[in-house]
């Protein structure tokens, strides 16, 4: 059976339509979308008339979930990342309260406005990995938690995943993330024993037959924590992202394993 783009897009649109629920709310509407935050709660946005157009907001839901997780969204790296998410999403923030993700536009753009606010709210929720770490938490578990929050339900996650080598054998890496036939392989590289961790990553990725851009080395800490020579070596066999950069790992994974809607967009 041959499946063309029109058939797939039609099937996706039907599924979205069948699983979207609307509730009257004052002068506007609450829209429950077939999307979920990291804790399983569904994504709900409010659409309300405003002047000659419509205001769409997540009612600060993502900010509330982050506060519950222990993330201070109004200071430090979390505040910077949140501002970048809102700006990068093209949201104008009309009448937005602190932590609220909102935008305003015309009827012609209403569908896109709803999707833009929902996507920004989901991306903000992914910042839960910035919560103060618990003593004794392994770096591999922190990487897994962060990538799991990013992956959501639209991508398949596998821990201790086998990566194929040129020899025909396989070795394990921290994570494999896949969607629609595309996959990224992530190796956590801890500062606990940086030389050994970097050598292991270099060895496994160097022997792999997977394309270099699909191999991602997630380095603990920031660039200042690592000798430039080690970073340069790892970049010859993989993409390198530093864990303390709030969004760099997610950006790279988005390139390798885009969400379904991005993959279908003409």
Task: Spell out the key features of this protein.
266 residues, alpha+beta, Trna Endonuclease, Chain: A, domain 1, 2 domains, 5-stranded antiparallel β-sheet, 5-stranded mixed β-sheet, 9 helices, globular, disordered C terminus
What does this structure look like?
This protein has 266 residues and is of the alpha+beta class. The chain has 2 domains: 5-130, no CATH class; 139-261, 3-Layer(aba) Sandwich (Trna Endonuclease, Chain: A, domain 1). Helix content is 38%, strand content 26%. The chain is built from 9 helices and 10 strands. The chain has a 5-stranded antiparallel β-sheet with strand order 1-2-3-4-5, covered by helices on one side. A 5-stranded mixed β-sheet has the order 6-7-8-9-10, with helices on both faces. Strand 3 and strand 4 form a beta hairpin. Helix 2 packs parallel to helix 4. The longest helix is centred in the middle third of the chain and has 16 residues, at 110-125. It is globular, with a radius of gyration of 20 Å. The model is unreliable at 262-266 (pLDDT under 50). This is DUF1828 domain-containing protein. It comes from Micromonospora halophytica.
